[in-house]
Specification:
The protein is mainly α and 296 residues long. Helices cover 73% and strands 4% of the residues. The chain has 13 helices and 3 strands.
């Protein structure tokens, strides 16, 4: 009977002979079965009775949806905050500073910041509008046979899209700080992003479910940015100009330097995307398992 229950579980309530207290146990995904198997050995050894039900919060289906939806923000995180923008911006910006062309350097920084914000905001708005076909045809076509899962992925994608805009600006701030020989805080920012996700999992997921983890992504993105603001404000010569700098030669130079790095990083991200697309056709939990394996 326990073997049958192991396949259909919702909430755990143990009432074991010789035990004076009731055990309430919550678990998720595969850990449900591992825990039940261990208790089965205990119960078998004591020849006791057991009644079992287990809640799944959140289950592998929800994690599949989260990882599929998070692919967009993760990709933009790697492209912008992860080095593609910084590797092109830093040498150009630093070159102007060493030549004591500080006003021109900050004009370049302002122009790139404005362009990044405009492009990413437009991209985020378009992705939100066309979230359903984006998930259906690009991110997880295998979810087409799982309407509830596809709808969940769409909602999670829309919730996490603002993080892409935040990461774009944060990546530029990181480049400015590195150009001024400030490395410690920018080096900590990826860890702060992960801390935001951990906060969402521990404190928000119990009440919001998988949406708690999505909010954790947004919190992590905000931490990624605001942790660098005090260091930026301590740069005395900082300036901001409301310009796009389309006629500025240094803006063109950043674009030229960024292109090969962007293509190189994008190729890796396309590979990850194809893995997720294939995993979406497989059984429950495969997409989440693949994502965890790639992260390790």
């Amino acid at each position: 009977e326990l073997d049958r229950i192991l396949d259909y579980t919702d909430l755990v309530l143990f009432d074991v002979k010789h035990f004076d207290e009731k055990l309430h146990l919550e678990a998720t995904g595969m850990s449900n079965k591992l825990i039940l198997e261990n208790f089965k050995r205990l119960i078998d050894s004591r020849k006791a009775k057991v009644w079992v039900r287990i809640p799944v919060i959140p289950g592998f289906n929800e994690m599949d949806a989260f990882f599929a939806a998070n692919r967009v923000s993760e990709t933009l995180f790697v492209l912008m905050a992860g080095g593609a923008l910084g590797s092109a911006f830093i040498p150009t910006f630093t070159g102007l500073l060493t030549k004591d062309k500080r006003k021109r350097a900050w004009t370049l920084a302002s122009a790139i910041a404005n362009l990044v914000l405009i492009v990413l905001i437009l991209a985020a708005v378009l992705a939100a509008i066309f979230a359903e076909p984006l998930v259906h045809h690009v991110l997880a076509p295998g979810f087409a046979n799982k309407p509830g899962l596809e709808a969940l992925t769409v909602n999670l994608l829309r919730l996490m899209l603002p993080s892409a805009v935040i990461f774009g600006l944060s990546g530029l701030v990181m480049g400015i700080l590195n150009s001024h020989q400030k490395f410690f805080i920018p080096a900590l920012t990826p860890a702060l992003y992960r801390l935001g996700m951990i906060f969402g999992m521990i404190f928000l997921a119990p009440s919001l479910g998988i949406f708690g983890l999505a909010w954790g992504v947004l919190i992590g993105a905000v931490l990624h940015l605001i942790s660098q603001i005090p260091s930026l404000l301590r740069i005395k010569e900082r300036q901001y100009f409301p310009t796009l700098g389309l006629k500025l030669s240094e803006v063109h130079e950043v674009g030229i330097l960024m292109a090969p790095r962007l293509f190189g990083v994008a190729a890796v991200q396309l590979n990850h995307l194809e893995h997720l697309r294939l995993a979406s056709y497989m059984s429950q939990g495969m997409l989440a398992s693949l994502s965890w394996a790639l992260t390790i």
